[in-house]
Design a protein that fits this description.
Blueprint (H helix, E strand, L loop, with lengths): L2 E5 L6 E7 L9 H11 L8 H4 L5 E4 L1 E2 L2 E2 L4 E6 L32 H8 L5 H6 L5 H17 L2 E10 L2 E2 L6 H9 L10 H17 L5 E9 L4
Helix pairs in contact: 1-5
Length: 227
């Protein structure tokens, strides 16, 4: 059984993903892992942090000579933005005057609930962990899981079918999703340009009003695919 966990803060030195249960002998295509990380950083409406980081995975354990060896796999993703936070978020006590407190929790995030749960006087520590940045470690672990499925002849892909009230209105084929995944330009990962343009408008409204907008994606798997 595959199990994964992650560690690290949004503005800390690095993120770490730990994946256990991977069988020995699986070929690890690091270029594929890094492309998955690259795809995560693309897309319309992404935040400024995406332009700072250039995520690549460094495998610390569990892989030797290009193949898994059956032991837990540890992956490290360095945070380039850490250089701007060494005094604000040190491991040591540091200078309290340089710490960056977060007195106003973000609506819709875990900030308030986490601060109450752990009895923190402010939300900085919760924000650092309950961050979209943490999803990079999940993508790295998920990429390795995809490589395992590939060994079994199974491929897993996804595409966006709705952003706010804008929805994909046409039938979807596996070939269309596969072509979308192969593109080097990622907007909103919708197979239909017309629907994607309407989704983009929804994102524009949310950006102008300082609001958020929900979305829906659909995952698909196929066995015996040549893609």
């Amino acid at each position: 059984m595959l199990r994964f966990s992650t560690a690290g803060e949004s503005h800390g030195e690095a993120l770490v993903a730990l994946l256990s249960g991977m069988p020995a002998g699986i070929v690890v295509d690091l270029e594929f892992v890094n492309r998955e990380l690259w795809r995560r950083q693309q897309g319309y409406g992404r935040g400024g942090r995406m332009r700072i980081e250039r995520d690549t995975a460094r495998i610390l354990s569990g892989v030797r000579h290009g193949k898994t060896i059956g032991s837990p796999i540890a992956l490290l993703l360095e945070n380039r933005d850490w250089q701007n936070w060494t005094e604000a978020l040190p491991v040591e006590p540091g200078d309290p005057a340089k710490h960056k407190r977060v007195a106003s929790p973000r609506p819709g995030h875990a900030d308030l609930a986490g601060a109450v749960k752990y009895d923190f006087p402010e939300a900085r520590y919760v924000l650092e962990r309950a961050s979209a940045r943490e999803s990079a470690a999940r993508v790295a672990a998920g990429a390795l899981a995809k490589l395992l499925l590939r060994e079994l002849g199974i491929e897993v892909l996804s595409h966006v079918i709705a952003v706010g009230s804008a929805r994909l209105e046409q039938p979807v084929t596996w070939e269309a999703i596969a072509d979308l995944a192969a593109k080097d330009e990622v907007l909103l990962n919708c197979i239909a340009p017309e629907s994607e343009a309407r989704m983009k408008e929804q994102v524009d409204v949310a950006l102008r009003t300082g609001d958020s907008v929900g979305g829906v994606f659909e995952g698909s798997g196929r066995k015996g695919s040549s893609r």
